[in-house]
Amino acid sequence: MEYTDSVGAMQILNIKSHTTLRKYEEQGYIRAVRPFGSNRKKFKIVELERAIKKG
Fold first, then answer.
1. pTM score
2. Which of 22, 23, 32, 54 could form an SS bridge with 41, CB 3.0 to 4.6 Å?
3. Cα–Cα dist 40/28, whole Å
4. For residue 6, what are the contacts with CB-CB under 8 A and spacing of at least 6?
C-alpha cells in the first residue's frame, strides 16, 4: 500500500492548511496512521482519493 505524508495528503485533497487536514481527520473523512517507531502521520493514498470522490 502506498502512503504519503501530510504535505502529500494536502496536495491530493487540494487544501492548503494543516488545520483543515486535522479537521478532516477529526470528522472522520480521512484516517492517519503512525508507523511503529515514528511520530509522523501517514495517509493511505487510496483512502484520500476515495474521500475526494465522496465529496
1. 0.86
2. 32
3. 19
4. 18, 21, 40, 41, 43
